[in-house]
Write a structure and sequence with these properties.
Blueprint (H helix, E strand, L loop, with lengths): L7 H15 L2 H28 L1 H5 L1
Length: 59
């Protein structure tokens, strides 16, 4: 830990903040990737629930 109580990762994030305005694709593309992965896992889970839910089959 540094003397002011910040962890190393927060210091690294703070130093990378200057690059966001210069190179926004460093933030945009990973953000879009995370959103797409979360959405695809959500749709996959919904589909598996629809197929495997025994209460849904009885209706």
């Amino acid at each position: 830990m540094s003397q002011d109580g910040q962890t190393r990762s927060s210091c690294e994030l703070n130093s990378g903040r200057a690059y966001i305005l210069v190179t926004p694709y460093l933030v945009v593309f990973p953000g879009i990737t995370v959103v797409l992965v979360v959405l695809s896992l959500n749709f996959l889970g919904d589909s598996l629930r629809d197929v495997l839910d025994p209460r849904q089959i009885l209706r």
